Predict the 3D structure of the following.
Amino acid sequence: MSKGKVYLVGAGPGDPKLITLRGLECIRMCDVIVYDRLASPRLLMHLKPGAERIYVGKLPDRHTMKQEEINRILVEQALQGKIVTRLKGGDPTVFGRGGEEAEALRREGIEFEIVPGVTSAVAVPAYAGIPVTHRDLASSVSIITGHENPEKLDELIRWDRVTNATGTLVFLMGVARIGHIARQLIRHGRPPGTPIALIRWGTTADQRTLVGTLADIEDKVKAAGFEPPAVIVVGDVVRQRDKLMWYEKRPLFGARVLVTRAQAQAGTLSQRIEELGGEPIEYPAIETRMPEGEAAEASIGEALAAAETYDHLIFTSVNGVRYFLEWLRRFGQDIRRFHRARIAAVGPKTAEALREIGLAPAALPETFHAEGLLDSMREAVRPGQRALLPRGDLARKSLPEALRALGVEPVEIDVYETVPAGGGEDILDLLREGGIQIVTFTSASTVRNLIGRLRNAGVGDPAALLGRTAVASIGPLTSAAAREAGLTVAIEPPESTIDALVAAIAAYWAERRPV
């Protein structure tokens, strides 16, 4: 068996979008990923199906895995011929022990590649509004470990040289030793009034910043109960925070939002949340897929073969458009065969999906649900007509029933089916710890499937677990399903659109975000 290859990848400081393009490639192509708590769990969503996950961080019944054990895992996995990505917070060569792991691989003759990452020593202060260098304040910066005990710190660091040889000092992992660090810096020449900042969980929704001076920072850390992990910045550049603070001013800063849409649709909602400074956590309660089985395929094929007989072609979702086109491709059909049909859409996103493929819907309802669509197209509906409805298997029956009442024959085809999603143990832990502030629902099916998914994961009372979060529903029908499941709806926009939902979430958070 040929040996595999190991990629030592820097995940960046926490914000998953700060990973490099090369790092993302390594995640997507690996057979095994070896990761710890400093790497964003959202990066794991890019793994290919079937990729193995090996967590080497701290567990309730175990301290952080020893470096020798991690080295052994990397070697063993590569010797099995696997492509391994070792995902490490920040940069693997900046106090990340990437050099030690590379040496272990070289000794075994295993090919490896080091993929640099955005180091927290620079990125975390930047997210707190602190540039580590500034033309008028600091022309140099030193990055120093602060994790070891005081005696070892004093062995490794020449305090007399470090204190005075550089403008800005950045200590990584030094919260537990902050008093010792401050006293040593004062002892070797830094004024007691020198500004200092501690930034905890920088670049994430949990980012917290504590500012003081060398003289009072230890007392402030104790009073605030400030805990690691944190980056410590010492120097005049800390004063820039008052002018340059930006991340913490964004409307959704501090809000971790659970996005329960199917993964193929989650991108738009997640992007809007991120734009406002929130941290979207994608936990799709449902996945959509092509229906399986000969009966389903035969039914769809028969309906498409009668393309010229339809007077109306009605789409009620973006998925309906996407999967309808996929079935046309599968059967080798031409959309132009539907030339007789008047095309209608529920909601602006569905209409936009149609326009992207060159189809202009003739009817757009003022209210974005099936009943509103029917009201908007009543003048075009005549008894004896036929309407094709490409939808999902969980679509409501109100629209076809209303069409029948008007004398129109509805032909329903389930072009996609909705199934519960799997995985997501890390997100379950966040829910139990109160680490998610808002949960979003964009359809009644996302409510039902999330409740089902939580039960399948061993949660006895999903409503109680979700009771610690604010429920955001896209509209009345979804809200009704949430209440039926025992949930209290705190957020519902006046219009059933993603933009309106995000705006309502931002307004809610503005009144409740921690100071």
